[in-house]
Write a structure and sequence with these properties.
By secondary structure, this protein is of the alpha+beta class. The protein is 27% helix and 33% strand.
Length: 60
C-alpha cells in the first residue's frame, strides 16, 4: 500500500490522506469517510470542482 493525499483542485484544501493500493481506492476511501459508498456516489458539485489524488513518497 501507498500513502495518498487528495486535494480539492480549486482551493488546494486537503480532503483526505491515508493508505490505499491505488488512486481509485484512495478516492473511494475518501468518499467512505465522508459517508458515501464510493467516489461515484459523491454529489456532482463536489466531483465537478475537481480533486487531485497524489501518491506521497515518504522517506524515513
Amino acid at each position: 500500500m501507498s500513502i495518498f493525499q487528495i486535494k480539492q483542485k480549486t482551493s488546494g484544501a486537503v480532503l483526505w490522506t491515508g493508505s490505499a493500493h491505488d488512486e481509485k481506492t484512495a478516492l473511494d476511501a475518501m468518499a467512505r469517510e465522508a459517508g458515501y459508498p464510493d467516489y461515484a456516489s459523491l454529489p456532482n458539485q463536489i466531483r465537478a470542482s475537481g480533486v487531485q489524488a497524489a501518491k506521497l513518497d515518504l522517506i524515513s
